[in-house]
Amino acid sequence: MSGGELWRLPARSLAEAVRAGTCTALEAASAGWDGPGARWERDVHAIAHSDSEVRAAGAGAAPPGPLAGVPVVVKDNLCTRDYPTTCCSRILAGYQPPYDATVVRRLREAGGVISGKGNMDEFAMGSSTEYSCYGPTRNPHDLARVPGGSSGGPAAAVAYGLAPLALGSDTGGSVRQPAAFCGVIGLKPTYGRLSRYGLVAFASSFDQVGIFGRHAGDVALLYALLAGPDPLDATSRPGPPPDVSGWDGGVEGLRIGWPANLWREGVDAEVVAGLEEAAAWLERAGARRVPFDFLPGEYAVATYYLVATAEASSNLARFDGMRYGYRDPESPDLHALYTRSRSAGFGAEVQRRILLGTYALSAGYYDEYYLTAQRARARIRREYEAAFSRCDLLLLPVAPTLPFRLGEKLQDPLEMYLSDIFTLGANLAGIPGLSAPVTPAAGGLPRGVQLLGPDDGEGLLLRAARALEVQGARARLERSHEVEFAWPTKR
Amino acid sequence: MAIPRDEVRRIAELARLEIREEDLDRVAAELSAVLDYAQVLKRLDLAGCEPPSFTPLAAALRADEPDGRRLTPQQALAMAPEAEGGFFVAPPVMGGPER
């Protein structure tokens, strides 16, 4: 295998090449940076922190496991003892944790090598990766557009080929939406299946580590290596994680819920066409479409932006300029130090959410906002349970639009929040979700669809993602034949 | 509904954030927009819906003994903006002299 082609390989083939001695772990781990990656990275800016020496040390220490030498981009809110972990916030500038997150430790134990720390919206609060203190990431398919967010860096890096796999976090869609905008697969597991130990907390009852990959099989491999209870995370889900080894088992007989009332209005025609295509592909693979109405997403938006901000206001209280991060150098007393350090260290969107959450929790408003939203959350969870008594998976949009332009939604925070309308439900209910690419839209922009499953439905989701992958390849082949045969007559 | 400026100031004080005088109206409007939007929840039938608890029922308590993980004082202080003699250094809690 020529070294210049290694970056194209799926993670499984790359690890196989390393174990077989066809290439070294260092060659594998650096393949993206040595290939066209370095040039892409200058335009896309997917990576917040990278260090070739640290990467070489990681490759040198990598055991010959299932991920031997495979580079993985890790979002900058997952603790890594050899790279800074700053959540792309000024308030954590230069912070380097003394320990690894559990998912990072398991990744290394399997032979994986950190390729770099992925750019993100500050503290994972955003849907476009424009709120990073290091500047935005751009969509590799169209540099004038956003890659989605908040895990825009990891998604873009996997899309342009820096690494075959990446880790993100999904609190309200932050893995699924950037995956769709960048044309890769993004999995948000069942709440508690991937340990949160070492994931900087945003909204603890929603936060879930997620996986990006270009192939369903790669995502299944990494999920199997990372999932499972962790004594260091009291909210990790007990019991063995779902078996995803049947990811290539097909979707014959699966009932695909089709809640078409959700996209009757306010959703781009291109997005709807993508859904129709995905449903047709799944049907061609033997699944059955089951139409029914589902609770509109407005309730999820309202619920999420009260409960998640309330949790954030509490979680982010720890950033006070005392134990780590930025400290205002001039404060005469403790109170001023807290206030000035936080006001200078947090960006505008993070401050907005802290204020909103503080308001929802404050005396006089708690019942009206926080408690009502918590009860709505229970109602939403119930709606999903009812849906999964009628179908095995739900098919719905990831976002109402294709990737939007940089700056397009920055002036209107509520407009940005509404772009999460289809992804928030899974986090409110704790269920797993996945976004997978279908045929790109007319202008060549990536287009994804979302699948949601019941608790521990990761195996089903990956089977559906694989079916879409296979049908997508078949459709491409058919289109290329059509062009070939049609060309002489069209001329 | 627009949140009064004083209310924004009070919330900011609770959150230990400082909002510049010229930003108060913008922040009030942004918060109000989300809170107004949240009124849709009033249309949702919440009978029998109790706030969820996310404690896994089967969560086992770990043994009440050290689990082997430890940060040395040096590690714990390594990232502190200011530390001295094994302590984090803070300015006076109440109206101390200018430092």
Folded structure, characterized:
The complex is a heterodimer of chains A (491) and B (99). Chain A is an alpha/beta fold and 491 residues long. Chain A has 2 domains: 3-294 and 393-481, Amidase signature (AS) domain (Amidase signature (AS) enzymes), CATH 3.90.1300; 298-379. Chain A has helices at residues 11-19, 25-44, 52-61, 102-109, 152-160, 176-182, 216-226, 269-284, 298-315, 334-345, 348-361, 366-387, 413-418, 424-429, 458-490; strands at 47-49, 71-75, 113-118, 165-169, 185-188, 209-213, 255-258, 288-291, 393-397, 433-437, 448-452. In chain A, strand 2, helix 4 and strand 3 form a beta-alpha-beta unit. In chain A, helix 8 crosses helix 15. Chain A is globular. By secondary structure, chain B is mainly α. Chain B has a domain at 5-36. Chain B has 3 helices and 2 strands; from the N terminus they run αααββ. Chain B is flat. The model of chain B has no long low-confidence stretch (mean pLDDT 87).
Mean pLDDT of chain B: 87
Give the tally of β-strands of chain B. Answer: 2
Mean pLDDT figure of chain A? 95
Per DSSP, the total helix count of chain B is 3
Strand order of the largest sheet of chain B: 1-2
N-C termini distance of chain A = 40 Å
Structural domain tally of chain A: 2
Q: How many individual β-strands of chain A?
A: 11
Spans of chain B of at least 5 consecutive residues whose pLDDT stays below 50 are none
**Count the helices of chain A. How many?**
15
- From the 3D coordinates, which CATH architecture of the largest domain in chain A would you assign? Alpha-Beta Complex
Strand order of the largest sheet of chain A: 1-3-2-4-6-5-10-11-9-7-8
- Please bin the fraction of helical residues of chain B: 25-40%
- Could you state the CATH homologous superfamily of the largest domain in chain A? Amidase signature (AS) domain
| Chain pair forming the biggest interface | A-B, 69 and 55 residues
The structure class of chain A reads alpha/beta
Assign an overall shape of chain A: globular
The Cα radius of gyration of chain A reads 22 Å
Q: Give the topology string of chain A: H per helix, E per strand.
A: HHEHEHEHEHEEHEHEHHHHEHHEEH
